[in-house]
Design goal:
The structure is a single chain. This protein is an all-alpha fold. It has a domain at about 10-120. Helix content is about 100%, strand content about 0%. It contains 2 helices and no strands. It has helices at about 1-120, 125-205. The protein is rod-shaped, with a radius of gyration of 49 Å. This is Janus kinase and microtubule-interacting protein 3. Keywords: Coiled coil, Kinase, Transferase. It comes from Podiceps cristatus. One of its GO terms (molecular function) is kinase binding.
């Protein structure tokens, strides 16, 4: 009777142990399934983050392209305005030169007419006086013409220098703006990538 009870208790203990073992195996299987599911979630999250980073990069790159294009258009418009201003200045200068030549020719005609009238009157002293006066006036006019011409050249050189300096300043400003935009976009990309990495690491640690 004692031997039968011992065998019965041993059988019960073995059955209980086997049942506990089966239960642990079932729990382990559930944990493995859950772990695999969590790994799948992490992989999906990483894919989504990578896609988001890619979209952000493409968006920022597009913004940079738009900014650069706008700067180029603006610079082109400024250049066209400068060219138009130069054309108008040259046209005004040409008109002024024509008026000056016409005035010189009119004065020359008037001088010759005066000289012709003096010759017709037959007065040598009068002709001599007219010629001397004309020579003095011609010398004075020549000096004044050269003086005005030099002043105009100096003024034109100053204007051209100013235009070149302004154009150079605009180009430098445009380059600075472009560089600042590129740096800003780069920093935004770096910050976004760092943020996504931190989030992924926290998610992985949590899992």
């Amino acid at each position: 009777g004692a031997s039968s009870r011992a065998r019965g208790e041993k059988t019960d203990a073995l059955a209980a142990l086997q049942a506990a073992n089966e239960e642990l195996r079932a729990k382990l299987t559930d944990i493995q399934i859950e772990l695999q599911q969590e790994k799948s979630k992490v992989s999906k999250l990483e894919r989504e983050k990578n896609q988001e980073v890619k979209q952000i990069k493409e968006h920022e790159q597009h913004k940079s392209t738009v900014v650069v294009t706008e700067l180029k258009v603006k610079l082109h418009e400024e250049k066209m305005k400068e060219l138009q201003a130069v054309r108008e200045a040259l046209l005004r200068q040409h008109e002024a030169e024509l008026l000056r030549v016409i005035k010189i020719k009119d004065n020359e005609i008037q001088r010759l007419q005066t000289l012709l009238n003096a010759v017709r009157d037959g007065a040598p002293d009068k002709v001599k006086t007219v010629l001397l006066t004309e020579a003095k006036e011609e010398a004075k006019k020549g000096f004044e013409v050269e003086k005005i011409k030099m002043q105009q050249e100096i003024s034109e050189l100053k204007g051209a220098k100013k235009q070149v300096e302004e154009a150079l300043t605009m180009v430098i400003q445009a380059d600075k703006i472009k560089a600042a935009e590129i740096r800003s976009v780069y920093h935004l990309h770096q910050e976004e990538i760092s943020r996504i990495k931190r989030e992924c690491e926290r998610e992985i640690r949590r899992l």
